[in-house]
């Protein structure tokens, strides 16, 4: 790793906030994705998606409500279709619904239930529910605006574990252009800037589909090429991010970061949180996020785990870190994010990390929104009482979701369910 940059400024956001109602507090260990936030209408609206299905658009300056509506499932993802002036919401629940809403009025424009393809839950628990895990919008190489989404469902029968998944391309009116089905678990999508390639990262491969990355033609859905870290077990890819003709991949298989060229040719790889022995414990952490832009690549790692036990006495030295590299794979800078990052937000020159709890340490000071200059690594922090679980950034404005948390060993509930909005300038 490069030398850590120590240029953090604290409490720089001066957030405006609005409560989002009630939600069960998170616990010491991480809960699933329960909230999302995004921007719409050329940055004039900030939109929140909540676990009870409520979707609300607010004026970005006053935070006054423009409209609010109910999504059929838990609303856990947001994307914007700017040319069509619509918001696309991804769901987790009985139907696994993707739906589009008018950005000005909130009126539903179309709906698609992914359970029709991936199947219905065989158990009434969250992990088994159909889940639209990723949603990406953009234009293909012919200039057609599209919605791309990946849905998955898990089931287990004794020792037999299965995933069912479908990747979709929708027209703005909700018509399906194509689908791509596998028996693996997708975790990430990215569309390149020219609309010529759509990358799908698969986290778990238990069946016939045995590759962590597939690249599809965004117009037809045809398979272009595949890549895999070539590791044993079912863990494969954590995230994918295009930069020109290159694609950055975080590998759950070997806990490294990769930069690939056309066809999957490996340009370089770096150790991120590979297996490391400390006082007899074999420790590792997953690289969960990747972001590439303008010849730079950043990776973010997650929690410490041990090879042979659930609990650990020590922590991996590179857990909960963000590390940036240049086009040749040489280190630029690295820094702590301190808590678990559910999702990384970026606007080109800045990275925004919503940081939740560190369950190995249970330190409330890890609860924060942290942001970094992509080139220099200079950072700033807005500490929260609760945990930050989602963030979005656009034109220097950051929006984040705070959720309450109650650690199992102190009985105190910290923070609230709220939207926080502030300026990075």
Automatic annotation (TrEMBL):
SUPFAM superfamilies in UniProt: Quinoprotein alcohol dehydrogenase-like
SMART domains: PQQ
Top-rank lineage group of the source organism: Archaea
Domain Pyrrolo-quinoline quinone repeat: 33-115
Pfam families listed in its UniProt record: PQQ_2
The protein's name in its UniProt record: Pyrrolo-quinoline quinone repeat-containing protein
Species whose genome carries this gene: Natrinema altunense (strain JCM 12890 / CGMCC 1.3731 / AJ2)
